[in-house]
Every structure is written in C-alpha cells, then in structure tokens.
Amino acid sequence: MSCALPFSDEPASDRPAIRHVLVVDDSRLQRRILTASLRKWGFEISEAASGREALGICQANPPDLVLSDWMMPGMTGLEFCREFRAMTRDSYGYFILLTSKSEKGEVAYGLDAGADDFLTKPVNAGELRARIAAGERILRIERELVEKNRLVESTLLELQGVYDLLDSDLIEAKKLQQSLVAERHRDFGAAEVSLLLRSSGHVGGDLVGMFPINEMRVGLYGIDVSGHGISSALMTARLAGYLSATNPSQNIALRRNAKGEYEPRPPSETVAALNHLILSEMETEHYFTLLLADVDLGTGRARMCQAGHPCPVIQRADGKVEFVGDGGLPVGLIVGAEYSCFEAQLNGGDRLMIYSDGVSECHDPQGALLDDEGLARLMGELRQTRGMAMLESLVWKLTGFADSDSFKDDVSAVLLEIKAPPSGK
Q1: 3-state SS string over the chain?
Q2: Which of 57, 89, 216, 362 has minimal CB crowding within 10 Å?
C-alpha cells in the first residue's frame, strides 16, 4: 500500500531528495511500526512482505529509500539488496538494512552487498529520522551531480555541434586558401617554377605565388603572415589580390609604361607600397615577412627585395649551395620603413628557392633546428630531383627530420629552376 504526498510546485532543487520509501519486512507488525513514523513525516510509502514482492515494486515505482529487514524467509534482505543494486535506475536508491546483527564482520558483509546504512532492531524513531536525513543529504548531492553532469553533457553536445560546424567551415576555408595557389607548376620555356604550400593547421599564414610580367620575365614571392589560423589566412587572401597573377591591373608589383604595357616596379618600391597599405588602410595587428623577386629569364638576372623573410637559397648547377640576401624589416611594423634590392645571377642548371621559416626552423624531437646548414644538406641530397618532385621530397625529408608529419609551422616554398643549355652549347 502507499500514502501519496500532496502536489508541490516548489523548484526541484528545493524538493526533498527522499519522497518514496519502500518498507520490506515479513512481519506486518514491524511494517506498521515503521510506516506510522514515515507517514507522520510525510513520505510516500510502499510495503512488501518479501524480497520478491519488493523487487516488483522497485521495477514499477523505484523508491528513493529502502528499509529492509535482513532476516526474511525465501529471499533475505542481503540477497534483495544485491538484486536491488543490479537494477537499472535513473538515480541512486539509498538502502538501509534493519538487523539485530551488530558484529563488525556482519556489517562489513552487508556493506559489501550494497547497503548504505544499518539500523538495529527494534528501531528507534529518532535514530530512524536521523539516518533518513543523512541519506537525504547524500541523495541530494548525488542528484545535484547528476543534474550538473547532464548540463555539462548538454553543453558538450552543443559545443561539439559548434566544433563540427567550425571544422566544416575550416575545411572549406582550407580549400579556398589552397585555391589561391591554383597553379602549382608552370613551364616558362627557359625556366620552370614550382610552388609548395602546406599549412600546419586547417588554414595558415603562408602564401606563395608567381605572376608573369612578360614573355621573358616572371615575378615570384613568398609571404609569411604573423600568427596562425583564420585571421592570418584572411590576410593572405587580401595579399594574394595585391599580387594577382590573373589581373595585372590589380597587381601592385606592376605598372603601365608610356606604351601602355605592363612592366615591373622595383621590388623594393612594391614592398614599400605594401607597407604603406597595411599601416594606412588595414585595421590589423598582423604583419608579414616577404621575399619578392623579379627574374629576367633571358639574362638570368634576379632582382629581389627581402623584408624579414628567410634568405633565399641558390643551388648552382654543380650542387653548391649559396644563401643570399640582407634581411630587412617585416612589412606592416614601421611607418615609412625603407627597403632595398639586391641581385643574383642565375645560370643554366641553377635553381633559386624562396622558402618560409617553417622549413629552416623545423626541429627534431630534441628541439634542434634544421637551420641553413641542414637545409643545404637536404638540397644536396635532392640535387638530382626536379620540380614538384623536389618540393614533395623536401617535405618528406622534413618529416623524417622532425619524426612527425605534423609540423609546428606552415611550410611553403617557391622553386625556380633555370634550364641547362643543350649539351655542346
């Protein structure tokens, strides 16, 4: 039988943790003694004369608290407790065993079966109320934790949804950023140009490119925007527009001459113009390093401006490696910064590589950097490898050096290879 509590509109957090109490005892007198006190305290009560009957009640209407006699015919209170603990529940049920046993060994046996507390028979009403109050505190803490875990789980599910959406957007952003380098290889007749762009994350701050100036001249550049992630990637997209390979009128490195033809600005002038644009027109905390080159494929003369970017490397036809350049200030740091050009002569069989610091600052598991010496060694090992195969092999070599294919920084490079003259000429 049961005694239901009146409806309460108080918040769940303020409601008692124990409402429904199940009393299990084969003695009707003992059940009546217990239920009299419980009814007076306002609990909803269910009664069972055996463990089997109690299990049926627990399945139909799970109690918050069980008061069960230990010694009962058929299924003992201890056996009932084990079955009770094996049941699937939405919340924890507090279990008090009623017993005349007081030996420590017997108490330990009961705890091992899943009991939370004990009351010695005959039960004192004041002690019973105190034990129920202790159980209620435990259940309240448990249910508060369950609710908090539910909220955490719900929040995590929402965050996972946001992450999945962001991850999907970043994958699309990576595709768009990679599309900025739509042409990875081009044969200009006298020379070939290959491009490598590999971000350390979904998107990055590196950008490489080439743009034809006329039939015998080509512009090359490598850019490394400060930071990583979306804001750096947006900056590279903006810069790609300033150095457009498809729209000469939008390319800041080119200008029209008196004949209406496009010709290159001196690289230093272009870099200074970019510095002015970044500081005067863009509201950003980012700056970037840049190596801009104007290469005359007819004469082999390469005129370059270095703005904080790593020194470009020239590998001669005989395999000798030379690092050229004089450093310079990054773009977007100082108003009115001045930049200068330097030149290098490329001959048949020579090649020029512009690369980001993700290459030279790649480190091994012990933290040692590859540095210029290591890069020169790798280029020596790849002396006979040409074009895109050379750049892909370089990434493979870096993976071996770092003992990982997950680099800490973006890796990018431009490889210009001057074709060797035909044999006998």
Answers
A1: CCCCCCCCCCCHHHCCCCCEEEEECCCHHHHHHHHHHHHHCCCEEEEECCHHHHHHHHHHCCCCEEEEECCCCCCCHHHHHHHHHHCCCCCCCEEEEEECCCCHHHHHHHHHHCCCEEEECCCCHHHHHHHHHHHHHHHHHHHHHHHHHHHHHHHHHHHHHHHHHHHHHHHHHHHHHHHCCCCCEEECCCEEEEEEEECCCCCCCEEEEEEEEECCEEEEEEEEECCCCHHHHHHHHHHHHHCCCCCHHHCCCEEECCCCCEEECCHHHHHHHHHHHHHHHCCCCCCEEEEEEEEECCCCEEEEEEEECCCCEEECCCCCEEECCCCCCCECCCCCCCCCEEEEECCCCCEEEEECHHHHCCECCCCCECHHHHHHHHHHHCCCCCHHHHHHHHHHHHHHHHCCCCCCCCEEEEEEEECCCCCCC
A2: 89
